[in-house]
What we know:
By secondary structure, the chain is mainly beta. The chain has 2 helices and 9 strands, in the order βββββαββββα. It has a single domain, classed as Hypothetical Protein Pfu-838710-001, CATH 2.40.320.
Amino acid sequence: MKKEIERKYLVFPDRLPRLKRGQKIVQAYLSTDPVVRARIKNKKGYLTIKFREGGLNIEYDISIPIADAKSMIYRCSNQIEKTRYNIKVNGNVWEIDVFEGANKGLIIAEIELKRLNEEFQRPLWISKEVTTDKKYWNVSLAYKPYNLWG
C-alpha cells in the first residue's frame, strides 16, 4: 500500500523546459468508487486500486502480466493515453502529463509531497491549481475527455 499526497496544476506550455525521455502510459478504468484501473507503463502491466481520504490517496499497485493489462484496457471504452515526463526542480520531482487522443491539448503537472501542508517553490511554468477540481482527475478525463468540454 502506498500513501500519496498529490497536488495538480495546469501549466503554461510555452514556459515549459524541453521535455525529454517521456514514458508512454495507456490506462482504462474498471470502476470509479473505488477507482480501479488497468495500466501499461514501461511495457509492464498494472492493476491499481485507489481510495481517496481527504487530501490523501491510498493506492494499491499490483503488477500483472502485460497481456492481461492489454486485454482489460481493450475491453474498456474509457481509455486515457498520455506521455509522462519528469522534471526535477529545487529537489522536487514534477510529473508532467501530456495527454493524447480525446484529451489532446491538456497538460497537467503533479507534485507528490510528504505532508499536506508542505511548502514548495512553484516553477514559472505552473499555472492554476486543479487538485480538487474533479474534472481534471484522470478517472474523470476517461469518462468526459477534455476535447468534449466545449
